[in-house]
Amino acid sequence: MESKNAVLVTIVAERLLRDRLTEKIRALGAKGFTLTEVQGEGTRGVHAHEFQGPSVKIETLVRAEVADQIVEAISKYFEHHAVIVYLSEARVVRAKKFGS
Amino acid sequence: MESKNAVLVTIVAERLLRDRLTEKIRALGAKGFTLTEVQGEGTRGVHAHEFQGPSVKIETLVRAEVADQIVEAISKYFEHHAVIVYLSEARVVRAKKFGS
Amino acid sequence: MESKNAVLVTIVAERLLRDRLTEKIRALGAKGFTLTEVQGEGTRGVHAHEFQGPSVKIETLVRAEVADQIVEAISKYFEHHAVIVYLSEARVVRAKKFGS
Amino acid sequence: MSPTEILATNILSPVVLAFGLGVAATLLRSDLEFPEPLYQSLSIYLLLAIGLKGGAALSVTPLGDVLVPAGVTLGLGLLTPLTAYAFLIAVLRMDRINAGALAAHYGSVSAVTFLAAVTFGEATGDVSEGFMPALVALLEVPAIVVGLLLARGAHARPGEGEGSGSWAAALHEVVTGKSIFLLVGGVALGWVAGKERMAPVDPFFVAGFQGALTLFLLEMGLVAARRLRDLREAGLLLVAFGTFVPFAHGVLGVWAGGLAGLSIGGAAVLGTMVASASYIAAPAAVRIALPEAKPSLYLTASLGITFPFNLILGIPVYFALARILGG
Amino acid sequence: MSPTEILATNILSPVVLAFGLGVAATLLRSDLEFPEPLYQSLSIYLLLAIGLKGGAALSVTPLGDVLVPAGVTLGLGLLTPLTAYAFLIAVLRMDRINAGALAAHYGSVSAVTFLAAVTFGEATGDVSEGFMPALVALLEVPAIVVGLLLARGAHARPGEGEGSGSWAAALHEVVTGKSIFLLVGGVALGWVAGKERMAPVDPFFVAGFQGALTLFLLEMGLVAARRLRDLREAGLLLVAFGTFVPFAHGVLGVWAGGLAGLSIGGAAVLGTMVASASYIAAPAAVRIALPEAKPSLYLTASLGITFPFNLILGIPVYFALARILGG
Amino acid sequence: MSPTEILATNILSPVVLAFGLGVAATLLRSDLEFPEPLYQSLSIYLLLAIGLKGGAALSVTPLGDVLVPAGVTLGLGLLTPLTAYAFLIAVLRMDRINAGALAAHYGSVSAVTFLAAVTFGEATGDVSEGFMPALVALLEVPAIVVGLLLARGAHARPGEGEGSGSWAAALHEVVTGKSIFLLVGGVALGWVAGKERMAPVDPFFVAGFQGALTLFLLEMGLVAARRLRDLREAGLLLVAFGTFVPFAHGVLGVWAGGLAGLSIGGAAVLGTMVASASYIAAPAAVRIALPEAKPSLYLTASLGITFPFNLILGIPVYFALARILGG
Ligand SMILES: Nc1ncnc2c1ncn2[C@@H]1O[C@H](COP(=O)(O)O)[C@@H](O)[C@H]1O
Ligand SMILES: Nc1ncnc2c1ncn2[C@@H]1O[C@H](COP(=O)(O)O)[C@@H](O)[C@H]1O
Ligand SMILES: Nc1ncnc2c1ncn2[C@@H]1O[C@H](COP(=O)(O)O)[C@@H](O)[C@H]1O
Ligand code: NA
Ligand code: NA
Ligand code: NA
Fold first, then answer.
1. What values do phi and psi take at D94, rounded to 5?
2. B60 close to B30: Cβ distance less than 8 angstroms
């Protein structure tokens, strides 16, 4: 099967952002996402899971433009929330499924 | 330590495919895999976890040819099952361990 | 936002190494990490989770030099422990946050 | 008891109220959610507990008393998938794959609905036979097989990517699937050990049972309410099927239970079993054997329509009916 | 009982000892840890169980007996965030955002501290009114709202990246947040079902309760001890706030409870409620409405300072006080 | 009771049947599996509950009655690793690292096997002393240390990548490892609180215990059966070791228990403790101190061979023996 490039956007955030972030990425054109419960440690040291439950890792395969918009949208939360986002390359089949 | 390239194959699938997929990738030459329980949303919207338990994410480091065969094998499930697969580059030490 | 390259180091290890590994990567300059509980199968076939609980996947975004040092440090465990490590490319914003 | 009293007794029971509470949580968009392992642990506990209770009861029941009810139950397990299937093909003009999938669900049993009926009987004094749980196992398996046969007959080509394995895999799932295994295994364990040896585990499996069931129904409410969204797409015809067919099955079950010589409570519980639609064992097996069938269809029907219908309306009606026929 | 006896009764209770055991585990760097779902499941169980118990009691209590205590509780819920806020601004010179965040916590209630007080009362014979859990719900909500208002008043600009949604979202969280929903929902369920219909679930929710609470406090010890590290940074002033203000609130609560006509046990439990600081409902709401407030600050104060303080010292003192005032 | 009756009583107990059910599930390739957190939660509950029970009993036992049994237990904890080690070196010609690893396991205790023995005694009327759980803690720790010393003596070079830390880390794990911490902590808690203060938590920790244990053994069956595969590779010699040595240890334990003045039940339970092989505390410590030892070896032996052997055959035999020696 011939495969195409897509961008894998990975977001790790404290749980309370979960629904806001998934709605956001859907609104920006992501066709789906995979959510994993994780624990983490960063520079902020918010041990949010004690009252929020575990943090969430949200992974979504999208095309480049969408990826940049997601990063843009999430950067709004950088100042006050425990959240990071990073991009990596991925090759997918059924590129349409991921909006490429 | 000198490192070599390997391909990281990531599969996200509804739980009932778990054993079939792990057996398949082993048969195709994967030397191992890492399995994570995840939740997800896609275009199909099978909320399978209600009766199957959480979906599974299967990650396996293999060499390029094996990676393509795995994608080939999994594409059989695209039509009717909740499953996606994508490839990304990784650098490993002990390349032998991963069949490279 | 302008983004920079970082290296994503992924470690999968039997649980008892968890604290040793997280301390190690912090000592080597990682600014944070994300930890996921996983199951796995490899060439060693230590079903450690029966007495240790699930294995752990540790992901940390660092700059290239740190990544290599982490691989170096972890290779000490290759002989006798259930552990793997691999590197992949990632693009991050707020490069400082990840020591780049 | 007057009809209204019977309805009240049901709606005001902790079990039904907990279900309502769960629905409310979802509708109010509360962030209440059960950790997945709690849901799984409660099902394991409940299924095993039912089995153990039924097995222990079986160990002190003369085989003769069970044979006829068992035979009748088996018969209903073979018949009801056919009636459901016929209705779907004739009235809903549904394709045979999805019709077979639904037939498997409506022939089979919902363990929780069964438990709600037993609980209701205890509250109203119409206690059912102790061996009823053993009949659940009898009713669950054949119905699923019949449903799959109805669909597969229409569909020589094996499930994609699974070769002929899929059919075998489905049968294997039907018989060794966790819910059926726990139920049957529990019956066997309780029956072999016997009522007396089971006494030390009663505080855990018997005394704690009602509370655990209440907690589980809270979660069921959360899950079922999420299905309500899908109801719109599902359409009125599916709602009609999900209420009318179970009701018809329920009446049939109560009547057959009476003929089989079951007590009023027993007949009503059997009616509820027949009326209920599986949403654990059946979906798992159907997803394996009929991947092309729409899960949203059978899950919405059994979980979003039929489960609440039986829980709130069906059960008290089946009991009232059993009294009329039985007394 | 002599003061020392009262202290002993408290410290030697399984609940407090379990907390100590948890602290010890963390200090000894034991690898003991509770799986996250167990922690979540125990909270769901405990909160629902309190609610059910309170609701069932409410169903057999003449409304008249509850009105005055309810009014007084409501008043305390509006007052105590103000006193906490004033203290933080005046004495600790804290910025208004963090002061408001802490005020929300100290006005609200810690369900576990409440339970420890009820348990202590049962051990010493000063049993509290059965409807006290209903008051917990009353005390929890308004205090959080007042705390947020105090901070937001100082801060027109809405929380980053959430637009005006954040304020609404926070209110929504306060009312439908899982801990409050389970508590209020449990009260409603128990009250609607009534004491008699709740009987079958008692073995699960009532008999098992003390043990589950003990297990939960073991985990609380693990969690609280992890906060001790942060104490150093927190500094003496925060420790002073985390002990003095709760104590003052406790005295106020005991006194007001007496005036409201509560029994000695009831007054002491009300005092404990007022003295306690929320570490589930409040943090969740505050994190949403005031993301710029420091979680390490309010979690360390409520979980690392005030919770142990009330558990070990506060509760017996509030009971002793209630006896002096009440007897 | 005739030997066959004794065997029957054991095999037909819910606990043993549940283990068999778990084995069956694995052999039938059922998809039944316990969520990891349920397994962890049940172990936490069981270990803490044993400890609390033992501690509460200790609080009402004159110290004099415990001293001799305690001393004997300690002695057995130092001796049995040596006998196991000698057997492995002499008969199996095993390298000293793996021999030491296994010695640590066979000197130590399997809490679940201990519980099965206590349960069996209650079923047959040979009730054991209430303070037995305290002896479990005594037997567990020293044996592991001796086992590690035997291996380490052969092996100056510290564990890879851990520097000299590994040895200290292992000792730390032995003493603060979760299973031992819960057991010892539970004993301490129950002993300090005293029997009377523990009464309110009894419904949770005592009444529910047998059922929880049954559920846990179902999971143990699932896990142990997975080990059967590895048996082939393990070979007959390991099977011989995993049955003969425990049996010898068991006989020794029963005899020594009698000398120590324990009741028939007590002696049989002590025998079972000595005969059993740890599969939680020991593997964790061994994996840290002896990473080069083969986990498949010690887990297969203790979990796949010795655990079922003691559960099904050993326990009734140790009780029969205790009767012959004791009566
Ligand atoms: N360098 C990093 N590598 C991987 N994950 C990180 C890193 N820094 C932060 N995280 C994750 O992002 C979450 C929030 O980080 P922070 O906002 O820095 O506290 C943490 O809990 C981690 O899960
Ligand atoms: N664009 C996407 N990015 C990440 N994960 C996805 C994406 N689409 C689907 N998935 C995952 O694949 C599963 C099946 O997708 P689907 O077959 O589209 O329902 C979903 O449950 C998600 O976990
Ligand atoms: N080829 C692979 N791809 C992905 N994960 C692997 C692979 N090999 C090993 N692992 C992971 O690393 C752990 C230890 O591997 P091993 O030391 O080979 O037993 C396994 O439990 C897996 O989770
Ligand atoms: Na049915
Ligand atoms: Na308060
Ligand atoms: Na031993």
1. -80, 145
2. yes
| DSSP code string of chain A | ---EEEEEEEEEE-GGGHHHHHHHHHHTT---EEEEEEEEE-SS---THHHH-SEEEEEEEE-HHHHHHHHHHHHTTTTTS-EEEEEEEEEESSGGGGT-
CA distance A57 to chain E (A): 16
Cβ density class C37-69: b for 16+ within 10 Å, e for less: bbebbbebebbbbbbbbbbbbbbbbbbeebbbb
- Cα–Cα distances (Å) from D85 to D49, D106, D238, in that order, read 32, 9, 13
- The closest CB to that of A31, out of B36, B39, B43, belongs to B43
CA-to-CA distance for B24 and B26, rounded, in angstroms?
Answer: 5
- Name the residue of chain C whose CA is nearest to F285's CA: C16
**CA distance linking residue E171 with residue D254, whole number of Å:** 49
CA distance A28 to chain E (A): 15
Is the CB of B55 inside a 6 Å radius of any atom of ligand 3? no
Q: Report residue A28 as tokens.
A: 């920006």
E strand or H helix at E19? helix E14-27
Contact C38 B33 (CB under 8 A): no
| Assembly ipTM | 0.94
- Over residues F119-160, the pLDDT tens digits come to 999 999 999 999 999 999 899 999 999 999 999 875 555 444
Tally of CA atoms within 13 A in the half-sphere of C22 that contains its CB: 18
Tell me if C24 sits within 8 A of C69, measured CB to CB.
no
Task: Burial-class residue D303 by CB neighbours within 10 Å (0-12, 13-18, 19+).
Answer: buried
pTM of the full predicted structure? 0.95
Query: Measured between beta carbons, which residues in chain B are less than 8 angstroms from residue A93?
Result: 71, 75, 85
CA A39 to ligand 3 center in whole angstroms: 21
pLDDT-derived band at C42, boundaries 50, 70, 90: confident
* Ligand 2, CB cutoff 6 Å, lining residues: A 30-34, 59-61, 98; B 12, 40-44, 46, 55, 82-84
Smallest CA–CA separation between E196 and chain F, in Å? 21
